[in-house]
Every structure is written in structure tokens, then in C-alpha cells.
Specification:
By secondary structure, the protein is of the alpha/beta class. An eight-stranded mixed sheet has the order 1-2-4-3-5-6-7-8, with helices on both faces. It is globular, with a radius of gyration of 22 Å.
Length: about 325
């Protein structure tokens, strides 16, 4: 009888252990799939159900607005420029001259799974028509820039310094502003701690507090995962970020970096942002140490749609802010 009981207990324990191991392996596999889906080089941009959920009902208007402006922008002459990152990757971008002598230059930092034209064609035209030269760069793992993976702002914030160096070489007299959207906004916020004196100010539109914070928000709100499961998956995904992607998901984010910002920052956010909650943008603003910071919240605007919905008002704010510090 005792031996039978011992065998049954052993079988139960073995079954439990096997089940736990199976669940763990399933979580590892799921995390690896998520890592690749999240961070690998994007394929051709395509609207799907997730995109519509994240971007809201104005997505088609936004895409049409960008396409119209991109067609106009691509009629203008540009110079293709390359820079090399600290880890040896070559990045590409497009430099546009405003066509008149100027010492004002804006570097535009695009969003996640996008590119410079699909994020910033309207704003690029606006800056050019108002006497600014414009550098439209592509982040690692996007468009023609090298890299198998994006690091979701973590390395991109430091990559931006290479574009600043390129503009300094192009014109040593440039007074430079960085303007970023979404992941690109978080990237410019990270860069704010490290920029040289040639960078005079920054605009961060709908930036998140950190890469890890934003992934957690998406998992728990957009995809409705239980908080404990989201934390487990993020822990395993972090492992793949380090070992495969070669970046640390727990590294300094925008909120931490702006505590030591060297320049004034204008923080912009739409109040109806379903991708990056407006609370994250406000947290970045509140953390910023620079006394010349500014907060703009555009009522009802979705993710990256403040310029779409408030073109005149936002454009005036952009110009006023830039002209105040690019003197």
C-alpha cells in the first residue's frame, strides 16, 4: 500500500513539475515571438485592426494628410546623407534646404515602425516654408537604415547625436532643434541629456516615459493581458532584448533623461491618445528639470495627430518656440 501511494505521489509531483516546465517553455516561446514582432525591422506599412485601434478613427484622414504632403515634399530637391552609429550601423536620411541662407536646422525623429516621410512630411514642409533647413533621418532598423532590430528609443536617443554631428559638419553655424514623434519623441527626450551646445531646444510630441513602461501599458490596456502575465512576459522579453537585440529594455527612458535636460523642451500630447496615454506625456513634462519647459495638450487629438487636428495653432507654437531659442 505504501509503495503504491509513493508511486502515485511521485507521479503527481512529476506531472506538476512537467506542467510548470511546459508553461514556462510556452511563455519563453511566446516572448520570443513577441520580441521579434515588436522589435524586428518592419515590413511594408499596412493598416490592420491593431493599427486602427491604436491610432483611432482619424487614421484614414491622417494617412491622406501625410500622403498629400509627402507628394509635395518629394518634388523638392534633397541630399541623401549617411551617418554611422557607435555600434557600426549605417543610417540614412534626407537633407532639405529651405532655399535661402539660414542658420536654423530641425532634425525630425520619426515614430516606431514608420519612417521619416510617413511621420513628418507635413511638418517638414512647414519648417522649410518658414526658413528652416530640415534633416529627415531614419532610425535603426527602419527604411534604408541598417539594423535588424529597433530598440524602441533606447539606442535611438544616442543615435540622434550622430545626426547632430552631421549637421554641425554641414554648417558649423547651425542652431539645431530636435523634433520627435512617439518613439521619436522619447528618443529626443533621451538625447536632451547629452546634446552639445549646437542643440538649442527640443519638441517631443506624444512621447512615452520609457520603452518598458509603454510596452506594459500596451499589454495591459490594448491587449487586456493580466498585469502579472504582462510582467512575466516583459521579464522574458527583456532577456531577448539583451541577448538578441543587444539593448537593455530597463535602460534610461525619456522621463529619467529629462531630469538632466540641457535644453528647453516643449511637450505636446493629444488628450485622446490611445497608444501613449497623455499621463505619460505629462509625467515627462513634470520630471523635466529645465525651467523653460512648456506643456501643450490638444483636446481630442489621437496619437501623433495634434498637427492634423490643430495645424494652425500647433504650427504657431512650433514657430514661436523655435524662434525663441534658435536665435
Amino acid at each position: 500500500m505504501g509503495s503504491i501511494l509513493a508511486v502515485n505521489v511521485g507521479a503527481i509531483v512529476g506531472g506538476i513539475v512537467g506542467g510548470i516546465v511546459g508553461i514556462f517553455l510556452l511563455l519563453v516561446l511566446l516572448s520570443f515571438v513577441l520580441f521579434n514582432v515588436l522589435f524586428s525591422r518592419p515590413r511594408k506599412y499596412k493598416v490592420n485592426g491593431i493599427t486602427r485601434k491604436m491610432m483611432g478613427p482619424q487614421l484614414d484622414r491622417l494617412n491622406a494628410f501625410i500622403a498629400e504632403n509627402r507628394a509635395e515634399l518629394e518634388k523638392r530637391e534633397c541630399e541623401q546623407i549617411q551617418v554611422t552609429s557607435d555600434d557600426g550601423l549605417k543610417f540614412n536620411g534626407y537633407f532639405y534646404s529651405c532655399g535661402q541662407p539660414t542658420d536654423k536646422c530641425v532634425i525630425l525623429s520619426h515614430g516606431f515602425k514608420s519612417n521619416c516621410y510617413n511621420t513628418y512630411s507635413p511638418q517638414a514642409l512647414f519648417y522649410l516654408d518658414n526658413g528652416f533647413d530640415v534633416m529627415m533621418m531614419n532610425h535603426r532598423g527602419h527604411e534604408l537604415s541598417e539594423g535588424a532590430y529597433s530598440s524602441f528609443s533606447i539606442k535611438e536617443g544616442h543615435d540622434l547625436l550622430k545626426w547632430v554631428e552631421a549637421m554641425e559638419k554641414k554648417n558649423p553655424n547651425y542652431k539645431i532643434m530636435l523634433h520627435g514623434n512617439s518613439m521619436g519623441a522619447t528618443s529626443v527626450l533621451i538625447a536632451s541629456k547629452y546634446v552639445p551646445e549646437s542643440v538649442k531646444c527640443i519638441i517631443g510630441d506624444c512621447g512615452f516615459t520609457s520603452a518598458k513602461d509603454e510596452l506594459y501599458v500596451q499589454m495591459t490596456t490594448m491587449f487586456k493581458l493580466p498585469k502579472f502575465l504582462a510582467k512575466i512576459l516583459l521579464g522574458i522579453i527583456s532577456f531577448f532584448c539583451k541577448t538578441v537585440g543587444k539593448f537593455d529594455l530597463n535602460a534610461e527612458g525619456g522621463k529619467d533623461a529629462v531630469k538632466e535636460s540641457k535644453v528647453p523642451i516643449m511637450f505636446v500630447h493629444g488628450t485622446n491618445d490611445a497608444t501613449v496615454p497623455v499621463a505619460q506625456g505629462k509625467a515627462n513634462y513634470e520630471a523635466c528639470c529645465n525651467p523653460n519647459k512648456k506643456w501643450l495638450a490638444y483636446e481630442g487629438a489621437g496619437h501623433g495627430q495634434s498637427y492634423l487636428e490643430y495645424k494652425e495653432e500647433y504650427g504657431k507654437e512650433m514657430l514661436d518656440f523655435a524662434n525663441t531659442y534658435l536665435k
